[in-house]
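Request:
Um, any thoughts?
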Amino acid sequence: MQYYHNKLYNALKSTECIYLFLTDSKNAWLEPKFPTECFFMAIQVHHLAVLPACRRHLRRQRAHRDLTRMIEHLESHESEWIETPMASRNKGLLKKWREQIKVTFEQMHALWLQCWVSNQTVNYY
């Protein structure tokens, strides 16, 4: 029986839990082997670092795509609003959205660069 949640894993190492586990004749306490420890740490790293980073990257990609679509839509219909009182508002929106695109692109690029640099510093052999 393996437990992968950090709280359960630490609780199983306590002496009280070991005693209760050993008194049950059906179960035998085995020290976790090296592959089990590695698997537990890999699962933990995956949940603590990899999944949140992927979600953050997808959220930035989605924001970049949505902003690009809104800019394209507003620019394609520029002839309709250029001579209306809404022209200054729409020009302001275009400027704001372009700045937001620049910021999201820089954030995505910084994250990619950070991952690339960290991979370059790791010695696999």
In short: Residues 60-121 form one domain. Residues 1-5 have pLDDT under 50 and may be disordered. The radius of gyration is 27 Å. The first helix runs from residue 6 to 12.
